[in-house]
UniProtKB/TrEMBL annotation:
It comes from Aegilops tauschii subsp. strangulata. The keyword Transmembrane helix does not apply. It is found in: Cell envelope. The keyword NAD does not apply. Pfam families: LRR_1 (PF00560), LRR_14 (PF23598). This is Disease resistance R13L4/SHOC-2-like LRR domain-containing protein. InterPro entries: Leu-rich_rpt (IPR001611), LRR_dom_sf (IPR032675), LRR_R13L4/SHOC2-like (IPR055414), PGIP (IPR051848). Keywords: Glycoprotein, Leucine-rich repeat, Repeat, Signal. Gene3D superfamilies: Ribonuclease Inhibitor (3.80.10.10).
């Protein structure tokens, strides 16, 4: 399927699931998608979409899956409104786009989210301490970005974390000893950063 997503799609007010993935679409994500107040799942990965993510998606209060992966021309910062979606619980996947800027403090509002995937973008700055409020998060993928600074101690408060991928960033300093206290952690990836290697002895 090709062409643009029509603005009139926002009139489908009873729509529950919307799957647009693996298409040859073009153009922007229409802000009118934010009018789909009953939407539970939005799948638009690998669909050739471009431009910024519209903040109006933050109005999708019943959404529990948002998948915009592999739209390589999707750019700009991640709207803070996305992180305030109260029902987002299954997963949020914005990986392998061209998103930039810092990870907003509002990420800590994702209190019900199980899986967060932001790999393969141009995100930068430090991981905000507010991420510790993602208490049910099980898998966190921040690899292949430009995050920097230390791994925040607050990350170790996410006790249910089983996979943490920080590969290919600009992290430095020591890896927190407390990572070794996350009992559920099964996979830890920190390769290709600027860590002090001596800290690995404590894990």
């Amino acid at each position: 399927m090709s062409g643009v997503i029509p603005k009139s799609i926002g009139k489908l007010e009873n729509l529950i699931d919307l799957a647009l993935y693996n298409n040859s679409l073009s153009g922007l994500i229409p802000p009118s998608l934010g009018n789909l107040s009953q939407l539970n799942k939005l799948y638009a990965r690998n669909s050739n979409l471009e431009g910024p993510i519209p903040p109006s998606l933050g109005k999708l209060k019943n959404l529990f899956v948002l998948d915009l992966k592999m739209n390589y021309r999707l750019n700009g910062s991640i709207p803070k409104e996305i992180f305030r979606l109260p029902s987002l619980s299954w997963y949020l996947d914005l990986s392998y786009n061209s998103l930039s800027g810092p990870l907003p403090n509002e990420v800590g509002s994702l209190a019900n989210l199980n899986l967060l995937v932001l790999s393969g973008n141009q995100l930068s700055g430090k991981i905000p301490d507010s991420i510790q409020n993602c208490m049910v998060l099980e898998q966190l993928f921040l690899d292949n970005n430009s995050f920097e600074g230390n791994i925040p101690q607050s990350l170790t408060n996410i006790k249910g974390l089983s996979i943490l991928n920080l590969t290919m960033n600009k992290f430095s300093g020591n890896i927190p000893d407390a990572l070794g206290n996350i009992g559920n952690l099964q996979e830890l990836y920190v390769a290709h950063n600027n860590f002090d290697c001596s800290c690995l002895e404590t894990l």
